[in-house]
Structures are given as structure tokens and as C-alpha cells.
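In this supplementary section we document a worked example of the pipeline. Step one takes a protein sequence of length 402 as its only input; no multiple sequence alignment statistics are reported here. Step two produces a three-dimensional model, which step three serialises into C-alpha cells for compact storage. The input and output of this example are shown verbatim.
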Amino acid sequence: MSVDWTGARDLAHRAGVTARGAAEAVPIHDADGLVLADPLRAGTDLPAFATSNVDGWAVRGPGPWRVVGRVLAGTVAPPLPVDGAGVAVEIATGAMVPAGTEAILRTEESHRDPDGRVTGDPRPAREWRVPGDEATLGDQLAPAGANVTPALIGLAAAAGHDTLSARPRPRVAVRVFGDELLTEGPARDGRIRDALGPALPSWLRRLGADPTTAPPPIRDTLDAHVAAVRDALGEADLVCTTGGTMHGPVDHLHPALRRLGATYLVDTVAVRPGYPMLLASVSGPDGRARFVAGLPGNPQSAIIALLTLVAPLLAGLRGGPPPPLGEVTLGEPIPGRGGDTHLSLVRVDGPVAWPLRHVGSAMLRGLSSAVGFAVIAGGATGRAGDTVPLLPLPLTPGEAPR
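The serialised model returned by step three reads:
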């Protein structure tokens, strides 16, 4: 029995959350694209000590100021001497501000008199950062579930962290079924080029997974399917297969899953294109659930299945929230597909989405120039000017759907 499209996405995410593994301390250099398992907290005040915003002179007392030293970034600044005359210390941007500093006079706004004393008018605004300006020790800098980005890595390093608490990238194996598929050159002799084996690892990488390169297509026999899936489950948290999701004479995925003792979480989704997709779980040797996502053999349908079932599952396994949908305004009508959800490839010009050509289930040309799929709910029709959800394509490595 088919599941509605929204329900299928929810089921897949919940399955990932339930099966996700323990968090690890990941070196910050390797954490880009992961998801925080615990909140990131400041390990020190930011800044940890008063630091100059400019190159200039740290001064105390009335001017003109007698120069008594220099402080550079990376050194400890001694306090300014206390006496009746004005004193100054040359200071570099980012250097520690000496205790007793009353103002910092910018270099470009200062002068030296014939006796070497510094003159000028410091600006009234403070020219240095004080401890805790940005954060104080223990402040939450990012919540659990936040995506680790280069900016967050820099923040973590500044806050004193060498590692981040995160779950590793889910390991994903790709297995392509079909005797009709070629792995090089153009279509010939009734056989077609495999377009999914080369592409799926890149899609999966963009969804935050650690995919393996797909081996040559698996032969269309039940024994070959069982062996291929069983071997892949030994090395991966998730196996993505392509083709064989229907019940034709050479569609062996369902019988293979029965042999492997799999439990169906989703068996077909009420969405067009992409209807014959599935998600099943298989208990691994350690008792933790592994998953098999059966993607249709037609390329566009396979990508719809990838975004419908695999993207939410991976988000759950990584410890993140369900992938959110965007929103677009239709520039042209998009018909409904009866009671099924219709996912229509679109390009976006400003806030307006326009349906594309070359969008048949077996076609890739429209997909190559799309930003995502306009979502037309079951029983509805999209009219020009309507605001509808957008299922975006993950366009950047490590970027989950927006």
C-alpha cells in the first residue's frame, strides 16, 4: 500500500533518528558538513583578553605622550607605568591592550614631535575589544543539530575547541541493477548507458553521506541481487539500489529483501514521477538497523526517490532535522496528478518558478538545469501566481536540501 509523499518523508526521517549511532569527537579539520551532536559552547571568553582593533598608540595620562615601549600580537603586554606624565606604548592590531590604557590613538591620526613624543586626538569611541565582547565562557554558540560549516569551524577554533561532537557521515553503498546497462560509451545493441551509477555518489555526498563508488551493474537474477545487497550491507549503513522496484519478470528486489529478512518501512509512495520506491530495514550483525532504499531505474524518478526517502533518512542518521522545503510562486500553471503528489522540475527567476521541458521520468536534461521540484499536492492543481512548496536539489557538496 502506498504512503503519501509527506508521510513517507516523515517516516524516513524518524527511522534515521531511531537508528543513528553514537556521537564522536571529530577533529575540527574533518568536521565540515557534519551535524553537531551537542551544543557548541565557548571554552573561553571571546576575546580572552582586551585586544586592539587598530594599529596605534595605547596611551595613559595627558598628551603629548612619552613612548615607553611596544606590544605586538602574540605577546603579553605589561601594564602602563603610573606617573604624572602621559605615556604611550606602540600597539599592533590584535595585540593585548596594556592594563591602565585610557585610549588608543590611531597611527594615521598621530604625530611625533621633535622630541619623539606622540601627539594627536584619540577618538571618543573605544578602539579595543574587551573580554566577553563576543561571548563569555560557557555561552552556547550553536545548538545541537546545527550544520557544521567553515564559519562554525572557525568559531569553534576561536572558542578553544580542537574537536566537535558529531556523528560520522553515514556510509552508503550504491548497487545498480540491470543487464541492459552499459558502463562506457553511447547506447548500442539495445543497451543503454548507466546514468545513475556515476551520478548517485555525488548526490549522496551532497546530502552529507560517505558513499562508495558503484561497482558494475548487477545481473538480473535473484541470487545476484541477494548477494549484492547482502555484501553491501556488510560495509554500509544504507544501500541505495536502482531498478527492480516493480514486480516484473526481472524485478528481483522485493524477493531479495524477503530472503534477507527485511522489514518494509515504505513500499511505494503516492508521488509522480517516482511512484515505485521503497525503504526497508535489515538488522546488522551488531543488532543496529541497516537500510535499503530501492530507487526506480528511471533517472528522474530515482532522484525524486533519493530526495523523498534517502535525504530525510540521512538527515536523521546524521542527527539533523528533517530537510526543510522552500517556497516559490508559479509563473505558469502546473497540472496535478490526481490523488498523487506531483513533483515538477522548475527553474527559478527571482521569486518565480517556471516549469521546464524534458522532464520525463527517464530524462535528465531538465534535471540538469533545475533548482528543484515544485510540489503540487494530491488533488490540487498549481495555478499561475500560486505559492507552493519547493523541494530543492542539493547543489553544493555537503549541503543538505534547504
